[in-house]
Amino acid sequence: GPGTVLAGLVGSGIGPSLSPPLHEAEARRLGVRLAYARFDLDDWGLPASAAGEVVAAARAAGYAGLNVTHPCKQVVLEHLDELSADAAALAAVNTVVFREGTAAGHNTDWSGFARGLETGLPGVPLGSVVLLGAGGAGAAVAHGLLTLGAGRVRVLDLDTARAEALATALQARFGAERASAGGSVASALAAADGLVHATPVGMAAHPGLPLPAELLDPRLWVAEVVYRPLETELVRVASERGCRVLDGGRMAVFQAADALALFTGAEPDAARMRRHFDRL
Ligand code: NAD
Hints:
By secondary structure, the protein is α/β, with parallel strands linked by helices. 38% of the residues lie in helices and 19% in strands. It folds into two domains: 5-106 and 252-279, Rossmann fold; 110-247, 3-Layer(aba) Sandwich (Rossmann fold). Strand 8 (152-156), helix 6 (160-174) and strand 9 (179-181) form a beta-alpha-beta unit. Nicotinamide-adenine-dinucleotide (NAD) binds next to helix 4, helix 5 and helix 9.
C-alpha cells in the first residue's frame, strides 16, 4: 500500500555520493515517496564488517533495501539469506532487497555497465575486448561484457595475480576460450575491438592516462568506468583521437536505475535519471 519507502547506502566515505538525490528524485517522478539515507561507516569510525549491523538495523526498521558500496560489497554477503545468480557468481553485492523478512543480495554494477554499453555505444563490435583493471568494477564489467555476448575478454592489471584470478573465474563461468589474462597493453589492443578502463586512474586523486595515448587507435571503442570526473583524461584523449567513447556516467546511472526498480517494483526512466545526474 501507500507509505514511505525507505532505502539507503552503506559504505565508507560516501558523503559525496549522488545516490540519495538520484533515487529520491526519480522515485518522486514515479509517484513513489522514497527516503534514501546515508550510512557512512567513517562517521562512526567503523570497519567494513559493521555493514552487517546496518543490514540488520535496516531490515528491522522496515527498509525496502540498501545499496552497498566500497568497502562492504563482499563482507555483506554473509549477512544475507539469498543471492541472485549474478551476485553469487560475482561474490559481490551492491543492492540488498528486504522482502517478507528475507534479505536478498543483487548486483546491478554488471547490469548497469551492460545497459550503459548497449545504449551508449550501440552496435559496437564485441569480438575481442581488453579490460584494464581487475578489481570490483572490472569483475562486474567482465561479467557484463561476456553476458552481452563478447567473444573474448583479455584482462590486464598491474597486479598480474589479480588479473589471472579474474580470468580463471570467468573461464569457469563462460568458457575457457572466452577469457585470458596478461600480456602487454600494446599487443592486447592490437587485436582488440574495444577497451574498457576500470582502474582508478583518471579520478581526481589519481590523475593521468592509464595507457600511452598513441595506443588509442581510432578503430577502437573506449568505455570508461571512472565517473568523477565524467570527462577523465582517457575520455578526453580517446575522443580527440577519434575513438567512439562511453563515459562512466551511464554505468553509475543504470546501476542506480536497476537498484531503484528492485526497491520499488517501479520502472525507472534511465534517460531522465541521466539528465538529473548531469545536473548534480
Ligand atoms: P579496485 O581498487 O577494486 O580495483 C582497481 C584495480 O586497478 C586494482 O586491481 C589495481 O591493481 C588496478 N590498477 C590500478 N592502477 C592501474 C594501472 N595504471 N594499470 C593497470 N591496473 C591498475 O577498484 P574498483 O572498485 O574496481 O574501482 C575502480 C574504479 O571504478 C574507481 O574509479 C571507481 O570509482 C570506479 N567505479 C565506477 C562505477 C560506475 O558505476 N561507473 C562503479 C564501480 C566503480
